[in-house]
Amino acid sequence: MDQDLMALTHTADEYDRYLHAVVPPVFMNSLHVYDRFEDYCNVDVFKDDEYIYGRSSNPTVHVLERKIAALEHGSRAVVFSSGMAACTAAIMATCKAGSHLICMKNIYEPIKRFLSTVGIPNLNFSVTYVSGNDLQEIEDSIQENTALMILESPATFVFRVIDIEAVTAIARKHNVKTYIDNTCLTPIFQKPLDMGVDIVMHTMSKYIGGHSDIIGGVLVSKDEELMRRMMEEMREWFGGIIGPMEGWLAIRGLRTLEVRMKRHQQVAMAVAEYLEKSDKVKEVYYTGLASHPQADIIKRQQKGHSSLMSIELDASTEKAIEFIDHLRLFGKGCSWGGFESLALCPVYMEPEEEVKTLGVDRGLIRLYCGLEGEENLLEDIEAALKLL
Ligand SMILES: *Cc1c(COP(=O)(O)O)cnc(C)c1O
Questions:
Q1: Could you give the CA distance from residue 227 to residue 233 in angstroms, rounded to a whole number?
Q2: Which of 106, 162, 206, 241 to mutate to test the pocket of ligand 1 (most atoms within 8 A of CB)?
Q3: pLDDT digit string (tens) for 327-365?
Q4: What is the pLDDT of residue 156?
Q5: Whose CA is nearest to atom 4 of ligand 1?
Q6: Which residues form a coiled coil (predicted)?
Q7: 262-318 per-position pLDDT tens digit
Q8: Nearest-CA residue for atom 2 of ligand 1
Q9: Cβ atoms < 10 Å from Cβ of 210
Q10: What are the start-end ranges of the H helices in 33-173?
Q11: Is the minimum distance from the CB of 366 to ligand 1 under 6 angstroms?
Q12: Distance between the two ends of the chain, CA-based, in angstroms?
């Protein structure tokens, strides 16, 4: 039986609990009350059926957590108000004042900003940035006080991957916890907990929500005690809870996650292959292409590919911007994971030093293929390339 599809369509729905409703209800309430004070005192909010107050837990959100835990092969998932709330909770739960962190250079940019504006000045963190491709560099970066490795695969900009099993083996040997951002592939195409990662993060604002209408995040792990801390300390004290309605919309997003991911992949593959053949395109960065320099690792650890890619045109930065402005079906904006295609130059406004560190063109173009279909997207891209 395909357990992923069961998780999306049935896990935790429990018809008989909710008057045989095929869709679990939105528990739009802030508290739960008891007849006897003693019953109230004995509630353990970490348990499946025990609730007190909405900042601790909510039954609708917990349906979502059970589905995502099943999908990621974790024992427990904790949902947050955003991907960043989830990410910073993971950092705060695993690090303490003075901790050293190892972080990939091309990680989701706001994480670096959190480390440089809060982690380093307020919490006395030290951070070593690594490429993620060089195992020796990673092992050499480990210090006595290294508490956490922050990973992402494939990662933003040029969609490089890390060898997840090899990196987690190094981390385990030195007692360092690992965190990975699995947003790009979703649990449908990659299961990092099975490859030794301690904590998986998803922003549900992207593919899981899938309709560009919610902000949310989630952490998943096999470590029950760590997840109890995430919920009872990190989420409860920082207060980054998701609203019940957003939680419910994320459940609705999950119903079609597998279907959408396969379609996104199919469309993106057609677009990447077309762009790779165009003489106006210098480089295409997409994990689905046979020409990807890490194709062997990708084959080993990914079951599929996202619909995100980057390209470099054989032209100036100005021409790159002209090109994306010529695209009619690709909205110019950040984020991704919804039904609508998007384009932008992600490093265009970064300082020179950062662009150098990342080792990409300032005119790098990121394309997100939505659900408009390959025929429409290719027609749009072809027309925009012709105008160059
Ligand atoms: C958008 C994004 C995040 C942040 O998620 P929010 O829900 O916006 O806080 C983290 N990681 C990746 C890869 C993202 O694309």
A1: 10
A2: 206
A3: 999 999 999 999 999 999 999 999 999 888 888 899 999
A4: 86
A5: 83
A6: none
A7: 999 999 999 999 999 999 999 999 999 999 999 999 999 999 999 999 999 999 999
A8: 203
A9: 26
A10: 37-41, 59-72, 83-94, 109-114, 120-123, 135-141, 164-173
A11: no
A12: 50
Q: What is the pTM for the complete model shown?
A: 0.97
Q: Give φ, ψ of 184 to 5 degrees.
A: -65, -40
| Interatomic CA distance for residues 308 and 185, integer angstroms | 10
Does ligand 1 lie within 6 Å of residue 330's CB atom?
no
Tokens found for residue 237? 């004290």
Phi, psi at 199, each rounded to 5° = -135, 125
The strand order across the sheet containing 217-221 reads: 76-80, 217-221, 199-203, 177-181, 146-152, 100-104, 126-130
- β-pair partners for 103: 129, 150
pLDDT of amino acid 49: 93
CB under 8 Å to 277, separation ≥6 — which residues?
A: none
- What residues in the chain have per-residue pLDDT under 50? none
Rounded CA separation 114/178 (Å): 18
Tell me which residue of 21, 28, 23, 19 sits closest to 67, measured CA to CA: 23
Give me the residues paired with residue 332 across strands: 343
Query: What's the pLDDT at 367?
Result: 98
Type of residue numbered 63: V
Going by alpha carbons, the residue nearest to atom 8 of ligand 1 is 83
Q: Give Cβ neighbours of residue 306 (< 8 Å, ≥ 6 apart).
A: 154, 184, 185, 186, 189, 207, 261, 264, 265, 268, 287
Which residues lie closer than 8 Å to 355 by C-beta, 6 or more apart? 347, 362
From 84, 115, 246, the mutation candidate for ligand 1 (largest count of ligand atoms within 8 A of CB) is: 84
User: What tokens appear for 308 in the block?
Assistant: 């995100």
